[in-house]
Design brief:
The complex is a heterodimer. Chain A has twelve helices and two strands. Chain A is mostly helical. The longest helix of chain A is centred in the middle third of the chain and has 31 residues. The chains are: A mainly alpha, B mainly alpha. Chain B: This is ABC-2 type transport system permease protein.
């Protein structure tokens, strides 16, 4: 990087420098999280407990029954485990971070810096996600596989498809968080909005109940909402309910929502810059 | 009397701040209701696919859920320490609290009262009444006093657990992710614990006793004899866990040296 600095301040170098800065945001967040890793060991335990409780609840619901909403009992176990572990990865508090930046006014400083604030938040989210993936999701998955009858996919396409989709889960979930966070520009205290978002995402993404088990009208509503792209679609690939060409289709849905959600973010970002007034300072 | 007076003053202050942000107030009430509604949807969906959950029918599970909402609403109203670490430790407000005469925990709870949460308790009572009527449960002379006692015990359990966990902030200033996760786990106390395996049952009964804020006490009204003993134990568990929580807290405060800001 220092070499490009010497080469003079051409625009090309400036861009490279900025790109490097964005990568540094990922790195720094990852290292910050690493410093607090001990706190996350309890996270593995608690996520395992979540899987356990849901596993036994579904077992009681199945009773002797064979299939519910197209899920066999074994698929359901796998689905529950992988959905919770995916959440361990994609979950972050970008909404809280953004709205506290807005509330304490530090967003004003962030806005005048030569980077894109939303992009920086996404990068920090990615750094956190990377940490969560390595320190929470992978070990958690190992524990879950040891404790519960989880069936891992044998088809490499399912693995690759799942990992790509998991990344999009992260993107979409973070986009929703960014939108929720930026809403603080418009309703100074957005605690309620954030709480509402959390509940809606957990329920409507299919984490608590797979979408195909909802009553028909509700699942057809959820089919046209972005939440299914966070948990339900990747989970369906991992459990092998969606295979072959189907994987491309569900990936297409995720890409579609990723692009669509960019629109409100860009709009909010510019509307917010115009609207910004700092409370008290 | 002194403490009641303080409570009144803080509530007046609360109303004043809330009236400045009227829209937020309603957003919060609606988000609370929505939260309850989603849990309700879960129960409805379950019973679309099965007749009974571990031997409990839909009305019984809904009744337990109604009971669960009552102490939870009271607890969320008076004990609201989600941002304790950030606000009091990191930003140093704890120092201000400690210089005042009333007990520090009491002050912190008062500064964060959240009366809209009580709406959840009322809805819980309505749900209990409706599903109770569907089940033909008798309304005895002891129903209301026992409901009060069990609600207070359950609130004591919540308060004990969350106070103990929050007091961890005195020992480490790191952002702990435990509280929100615990929030998930407490919901498991409102399903028949007998559907879980032994380890989870023991955990939810004796270690983080969330079964005592939902299924056990509610079973008393549902005349479920197999859980009567547990239901009667609720006040004891409440007292024990509240004491543990307060001990952890007071010890933490003694160790507290300020964040230096």
């Amino acid at each position: 990087m220092s070499k490009s600095l010497e080469a003079g301040g051409s625009q090309e170098n400036g861009k490279l420098l900025l790109l490097g800065a964005y990568f540094d945001f990922i790195r720094i967040r990852f290292l910050t999280m690493l410093a607090y890793r001990v706190n996350y060991y309890s996270g593995i335990l608690i996520y395992t407990l979540n899987i356990g409780v849901n596993y036994f609840t579904w077992k009681a619901i199945y009773g002797g029954g064979e299939s519910l909403g197209g899920f066999t009992s074994a698929q359901m176990t796998t689905y529950v485990a992988v959905s919770w572990m995916a959440r361990a990865f994609y979950f972050n508090n970008l909404d809280r971070e953004i709205s506290s930046d807005i509330r304490d006014g530090s967003i004003a400083i962030q806005f005048i810096r030569p980077y894109n604030y939303v992009l920086v938040k996404m990068m920090q989210g990615l750094g956190e996600g990377l940490f969560r993936f390595l320190m929470l999701m992978i070990p958690g998955m190992v524990v879950a596989v040891l404790l519960f009858p989880v069936e891992l996919p044998t088809d490499p396409a399912a693995w690759i498809g799942f990992l790509v989709m998991l990344f999009f889960s992260f993107l979409i979930s973070s986009q929703i968080n960014v939108i929720t966070g930026l809403s603080a520009f418009f309703v100074e205290n957005n605690e309620g909005v954030m709480r509402m978002k959390r509940v809606i995402v957990d329920l409507f993404s299919g984490l608590i109940v797979p979408i195909s088990l909802f009553p028909g009208w509700l699942s057809s509503v959820l089919d046209v909402l972005p939440f299914q792209a966070i948990t339900y679609l990747p989970g369906s690939v991992f459990t092998g309910r969606v295979q072959g060409v189907g994987i491309w289709n569900v990936l297409g849905i995720q890409v579609f929502w990723f692009l669509v959600l960019l629109i409100p973010i860009v709009w909010l970002y510019y509307a917010a810059r115009k609207r910004l007034f700092v409370q008290g300072g | 009397m002194y403490h009641l007076g303080l409570l009144w003053e803080y509530l007046k202050n609360y109303m004043k701040t809330r009236l400045t942000y009227r829209a937020d107030f309603w957003v919060e009430v609606i988000s609370d209701l929505l939260f309850q509604a989603t849990n309700f949807i879960f129960i409805m969906v379950i019973f679309m696919h099965t007749e009974s959950l571990g031997g409990w029918n839909q009305n019984e599970v809904v009744f337990v859920y109604g009971f669960f909402m009552v102490p939870f609403g009271v607890f969320s109203c008076f004990v609201n320490m989600w941002n304790f670490s950030e606000r009091y430790i990191v930003k140093g407000e704890m120092d201000r609290v400690l210089t005042r005469p009333a007990h520090n925990l009491f002050q912190i709870l008062l500064e964060n009262v959240d009366p809209p949460s009580l709406i959840g308790s009322f809805i819980g009572l309505v749900i209990m009444a409706i599903s109770g009527a569907n089940l033909g449960l008798p309304f005895e002379w002891w129903t209301i006093p026992v409901l009060l006692l069990l609600t207070l015990s359950a609130v004591a359990i919540y308060t004990g657990i969350y106070t103990a966990l929050t007091s961890l902030s005195f020992y480490s200033d790191a952002p702990t992710g435990i509280l929100p996760l615990m929030y998930n786990i407490q919901n498991y106390g409102r399903y028949p614990v007998t559907i879980y395996n032994r380890a989870i049952q023991v955990l939810l009964t004796w270690i983080i006793p969330f079964a005592f804020v939902g299924i056990y006490p509610a079973a008393l009204f549902l005349q479920r004899d197999e859980m009567r003993g547990m239901a009667i134990l609720t006040p004891v568990v409440g007292a024990v866990f509240l004491s543990i929580g307060l001990l952890c807290w007071n010890y933490g405060v003694k160790r507290y040296k300020g964040a230096g800001s």
